Amino acid sequence: MTQELQNLLNKYWDIIQEEVNVKKIDILPDSLNISKIYKPIWSQISSKFTKDTGKIIQFSKQWNIVELQDSKIKVFDDQKNERILSKEDYEIAYQWIDWNDIAVDWNIIAKLDLEISPQLQKEWIAREISRFINQMRKDADYSVDSKVDMIYQTDDNTLSEIIQEFVDFLKWEALLNTITKENKKPDWNIFALFTNEESTINFALKK
């Protein structure tokens, strides 16, 4: 990884996590057996290098290439003659790469770990509950800055534990003053039923 790319990741770390909805971002280890191949584009370089075009193609296949800054590469022959190719003059391909859950964009390789841990599952449900409550607020025509009270009732222990664990998150995301558990179905006017697989929560809101 280039220092430039590392700096970009450091700068936009939080934004990437939020936009892609990932819990953690790690750098792929150098031990991965991935080979990058630079492929000069004949139609692009023939007008620039004319009779040297064939040599550039030949020596690029022999790995006589050095990557430079600004996405440029240097191709050299056995006599150390050098030709500089710009980004538009070549393509990048990869060998020995496991394409499962892998995405490649030019000089960047991203791999997603799609294993859902129990904690990630809880966080996903908490976000779904937050979206659900905010939709209730919208349907009730509450102003975007008004805080409300919420009560809920559920017979599912897991869902109840999730609400208790993420109570601060829900208060912040859905502008809630209080979150109270009831033993019976809420009878407030603003009422909705949240469903997660076979489990349900009765939610009610009030200003």
Instruction: Give the total of domains.
Output: 2
Largest sheet: 4 strands, mixed
- Stretches where pLDDT falls below 50 for ≥5 residues? none
Shape: elongated
How many strand units? 11
Question: How many helical elements?
Answer: 7
Q: What's the pLDDT, averaged over the residues?
A: 85
Radius of gyration computed on alpha carbons: 28 Å
- Structural class comes to alpha+beta
In spatial order, strands of the major sheet run: 9-8-11-10
Please provide the ordered H/E string of secondary-structure elements.
HHEHHEEEEEEHEHHEEE
What percent of residues are in strands?
25-35%
Helix percent reads 25-40%
Distance between the termini: 52 Å
Describe what you observe in this structure.
This protein has two domains: 3-111, no CATH class; 118-206, hypothetical protein PF0899 fold (2-Layer Sandwich), CATH 3.30.2320. With 207 residues, it is α+β, with helices and mostly antiparallel strands. The mean pLDDT is 85. It contains seven helices and eleven strands. The two termini are 52 Å apart.
List keywords for this structure.
207 residues; 4-stranded mixed β-sheet; 2 domains; alpha+beta; hypothetical protein PF0899 fold; 7 helices; elongated; 3-stranded antiparallel β-sheet
Write the layout of secondary structure elements.
Blueprint: H1 3-11, H2 13-20, E1 35-40, H3 42-49, H4 53-61, E2 65-67, E3 73-76, E4 82-85, E5 90-95, E6 102-105, E7 108-111, H5 118-139, E8 148-153, H6 157-165, H7 167-174, E9 176-181, E10 190-196, E11 199-206
Parallel strand pairs: 8-9
Antiparallel strand pairs: 1-5, 2-3, 3-4, 6-7, 8-11, 10-11
